[in-house]
Write a structure and sequence with these properties.
The complex is a heterodimer of chains A (about 120) and B (about 120).
Chain A: E1 4-7, E2 10-13, E3 18-25, E4 31-37, E5 44-50, E6 53-57, E7 64-70, E8 73-79, E9 87-94, E10 106-107, E11 111-115
Parallel strand pairs in A: 2-11
Antiparallel strand pairs in A: 1-3, 3-8, 4-5, 4-9, 5-6, 7-8, 9-10, 9-11
Chain B: E1 3-5, E2 10-14, E3 19-21, E4 24-26, E5 32-39, E6 46-52, E7 59-61, E8 64-69, E9 74-79, E10 88-96, E11 108-109, E12 113-118
Parallel strand pairs in B: 2-12
Antiparallel strand pairs in B: 1-4, 3-9, 5-6, 5-10, 7-8, 8-9, 10-11, 10-12
């Protein structure tokens, strides 16, 4: 079983809908990430949270709104998406600071989003 | 800017053959980390190995081995006696600069190599 849990696994939404993707980890990691992956492409970084604060936003459109309510949870709120936003959305977490686990991202299985 | 190149888009071999996946990286920093991840059809990215820039020692883990050569900026991955279960997309990735010292940063991925192991 993966240690990073993402829900839902599949989501279909219209362009006027509001939905959310959820991610949870219980490994004590203090960094959490959202990646977007289109078919046959590598994952692209969207957001990074470090100690529950947004530290990196890779110029992502405002129709994607991240939220980190606590150290175990990461949400991605979706509103007014476009069909080209259809992709696999991957959540990951990692330790922060030095040590053998630093920068080793543990990924969830992803949420496959289809925008109609 | 950092960059990771995986020139092999797709490799197809017959089971039990050895196969090497190439990875070439670019960075201006002396401190960096290199990674390999496996992505099976299920979609989850699975961590395989991390290597820091100060450790050029090659590593072997079962049928997997990694060859890190700073002189050629390469971090190649070899699977010995390949199996059908090895079929997946393999990504090489890099973190460099200030965040590689232990902050939180995102990985820069290569485009991936789709490995097909035929029975």
């Amino acid at each position: 079983d993966t240690e990073v849990t993402q829900t839902p696994k599949h989501l279909v939404m219209g362009m006027t809908n509001k939905k959310s993707l959820k991610c949870e980890q219980h490994m004590g990691h203090r960094a959490m990430y959202w990646y977007k992956q289109k078919a046959k492409k590598p994952p692209e970084l969207m957001f990074v949270y470090s100690y529950e604060k947004l530290s990196i936003n890779e110029s992502v459109p405002s129709r994607f709104s991240p939220e980190c309510p606590n150290s175990s949870l990461l949400n991605l709120h979706l509103h007014a998406l476009q069909p080209e936003d259809s992709a696999l959305y991957l959540c990951a977490s990692s330790q922060v600071g030095g040590g053998s686990g630093a920068n080793v991202l543990t990924f969830g299985a992803g949420s496959r989003l289809t925008v109609l | 800017a950092q960059k990771v190149t995986q020139a092999q888009t797709e490799i197809s071999v017959v089971e039990k053959e050895d196969v090497t996946l190439d990875c070439v990286y670019e960075t201006r920093d002396t401190t960096y980390y290199l990674f390999w991840y496996k992505q099976p059809p299920s979609g989850e990215l699975v961590f395989l190995i991390r290597r820091n820039s100060f450790d050029e020692q090659n590593e072997i883990s079962g049928r997997y081995s990694w060859n890190f050569q700073k002189s050629t900026s390469s971090f190649n991955f070899t699977i010995t006696a390949s199996q059908v279960v090895d079929s997946a997309v393999y990504f090489c990735a890099l973190i460099d600069g200030m965040y590689s010292g232990g902050g939180a940063d995102g990985l820069t991925f290569g485009k991936g190599t789709h490995l097909i192991i035929q029975p």
